[in-house]
Amino acid sequence: MIRPVYIYGSPVLRKVAQDIDSTYPDIKQLIEDMFETMYHSDGVGLAAPQIGLSIRLIVIDDSPMEEDDPALKDFKKVFINAKIIERFGEKVLFKEGCLSIPNLREEVERESSVRIQYLDENFIPHDEVFEGIPARVIQHEYDHLEGVMFTDRLSVLRRKLIGGKLNSISKGKFDIDYKFRLAK
Ligand code: NI
Q1: What's the CA-to-centroid distance between 141 and ligand 1, angstroms?
Q2: Which burial class, exposed, middle or buried, applies to 92 when counting CB atoms under 10 A from its CB (0-12, 13-18, 19+)?
Q3: pLDDT for 59-81, tens place per residue?
Q4: Is 120 within the bounds of a domain?
Q5: Where would you tag: which of 57, 95, 96, 100 has the fewest CB atoms within 10 A of its CB?
Q6: Catalytic residue check, 131
């Protein structure tokens, strides 16, 4: 089932999300819904707070970015209770977007590599290092679990410049073809 995407200004996007365990109700269905919602809106990653659930669940499928890196062909993963242990490597600028901030794209600086501990969809623990585009998407989605939006990572000046745009986005002044929900 496709879920509505919560838009910038929704309080749930500013909360620190909580860990879950395997008794979380209908977790398989929820993961399926998140992938479906993400594909429907042409996203490459989605965090549970973006569908209104303040839990530490992320889905990522970077295969649409295969053109940039052939290794991404099969990069489809679920991250539960993710914890970034270390960010390292060079700082890289990359133009990011977010399903919760429609039609806004900005260069964001992040480290090129991350080490992350997480549980997969079967609640099996992993401790892995990612670099390149996966590291970028993981850091973006991870921010959602911490109540951080990518626009928070822009310079003070840049944030000032896009302030009006963010304000109109939070009021629903945008044109997208996926279901969404504004702050009440
Ligand atoms: Ni996002």
Answers
A1: 6
A2: middle
A3: 999 888 888 888 788 889 999 99
A4: yes
A5: 95
A6: no
Is residue 72 within 8 A of residue 133, CB to CB? The reply is yes
pTM, two decimal places: 0.96
Q: How far is the CA of 138 from the centre of ligand 1 (A)?
A: 10
Distance (angstroms) between ligand 1 centre and the Cα of 21 equals 24
CATH number at residue 82: 3.90.45.10
User: 176 CA distance to ligand 1 centroid (A)?
Assistant: 15
Question: Within a domain: residue 182?
Answer: no
Question: Could you say which of 67, 96, 131, 141 is catalytic?
Answer: 141
Structural domains counted in the chain = 1
Tell whether 157 is covered by a domain: yes
- Does residue 69 lie within any of the structural domains? yes
Task: Please check whether residue 114 is in contact with residue 79, taking contact to mean a CB–CB distance below 8 angstroms.
Answer: no
Q: Which amino acid is at 38?
A: M
Query: What digits encode the pLDDT tens for the residues 86-128?
Result: 999 999 999 999 999 999 999 999 999 999 999 999 999 999 9
